[in-house]
Write a structure and sequence with these properties.
This protein has 361 residues and is an alpha/beta fold. Helix content is 46%, strand content 13%. The longest helix is centred in the middle third of the chain and has 24 residues. The protein is elongated.
Length: 361
């Protein structure tokens, strides 16, 4: 007699996510102890040894609730009984910049990156589900952040992998019940102070009631389609050279890093010397000649490369940058998040990051 259908579905998804790894490779599961990540960790513990893949886990303690350290320790102790190794709980300090949800996410990913680097893990597995994807799409739609935001979460993004994006949250809870697991219910998931909780418990149910069942699945399909379009446009933008001559950006090649993360330039990294930190220069005439979809991507990437946090960069910011290129009337520069300023000078768009006082030597 085989496993419960929900358990089999999770195992199949994990098997597919690990299929390209080599024997001896190490993967880490990010596990909070909630039903999604717990079901994921259980499936990884079952599937990884079959493939010869080593598997460990990290539980990030955000310190936002009483008893969080004890809970993280209990999660790690459970995962160790399943044969996962290494396993560890990592305590992080959550800042306030960008709001509590963004700050907690930033702290979590920083901790996971550090753990992956320290242990030499080639992949970190996350327990995001199809319902999480639908919520992400709705949140992006509310922000008006463009196609990339509406594309939601990618199944694979660098070292991060999301094996469960095609599975419903209820399916993961069902798998936990079938395995006799007792997952933790995070009270933040039902706290209306958080935008995602409101989308989960108010917006999506209202859409289901008004439009019928299947809204979450439709939003997830939309994300996949938009992601393919956004990837294609990003690739075109990466092959488009709009670097200004003499700006410090290599004149050969695309002027954009091959990862699509931003415009590259010698000396464009953030340093601690000087009153201002120059990042990149873009030829406004070349930019203006590009289709809007390509131009906006080049501008967004340039801003991020200059030091602007991608999560804080809105469509309004990009539109203001675009106006410096396509509707130049002698207007002043544009202030961007991350203390980045964009100024048009002699037909060149220069992006400069102003350091904090403590960064100036």
């Amino acid at each position: 007699m085989g496993p419960h259908p929900a358990v089999a579905a999770v195992r199949l998804a994990v098997r597919a996510a690990l299929a390209d790894l080599e024997p001896g490779d190490l993967v880490l599961v990010a596990c909070s102890g909630g039903p999604d990540s717990l079901a994921l960790a259980r499936a990884v513990a079952f599937e990884a040894p079959k493939l010869g893949v080593r598997a460990g886990a990290v539980s990030v303690d955000h310190g936002l609730q009483a008893g969080s350290a004890e809970r993280a320790a209990a999660v790690i102790a459970l995962l160790a009984t399943w044969g996962l190794d290494p396993v560890e709980a990592v305590r992080v300090e959550v800042a306030t910049a960008g709001g509590p949800e963004a700050a907690a996410r930033d702290a979590r990913y920083a901790a996971l990156d550090e753990a992956a680097d320290r242990h030499g893990a080639c992949a970190v597995l996350l327990g995001h589900t199809r319902d999480d994807q639908a919520e992400t799409v709705l949140l992006g739609l509310a922000r008006g952040s463009g196609a990339r935001s509406l594309a939601g979460m990618a199944p694979v993004a660098g070292r991060y992998r999301r094996p469960l994006l095609d599975l419903e949250r209820d399916r993961l809870a069902e798998a936990c019940r079938a395995e006799g697991l007792d997952p933790w219910a995070d009270p933040h998931n039902t706290d209306p102070a958080y935008a995602r909780a409101r989308v989960r418990h108010e917006a999506l149910p209202a859409l289901e009631q008004a439009l019928g069942p299947g809204v979450a699945a439709a939003l997830a399909r939309t994300a996949a389609l938009l992601r393919a379009d956004a990837d294609a446009l990003d690739a075109i933008a990466a092959a488009t050279d709009c670097a200004a001559a003499g700006s410090g950006i290599p004149s050969s090649g695309s002027g954009i890093s091959s990862s699509g993360s931003g415009i590259s330039s010698s000396g464009s990294g953030i340093s601690s010397s000087g009153p201002d930190i120059p990042s990149s220069g873009l030829d406004c005439a070349k930019l203006a000649a590009q289709p809007a979809a390509i131009r906006s991507r080049i501008l967004r990437n340039a801003a991020i490369e200059a030091g602007c946090p991608g999560t804080d960069l809105t469509a309004g910011h990009v539109a203001a940058l675009d106006a410096l290129v396509t509707a130049w009337r002698g207007q002043s520069g544009v202030d961007l998040p991350g203390r980045v300023q964009a100024v048009r000078t002699c037909g060149t768009l220069e992006l400069t990051r102003r350091p904090r006082p403590e960064e100036v030597q």
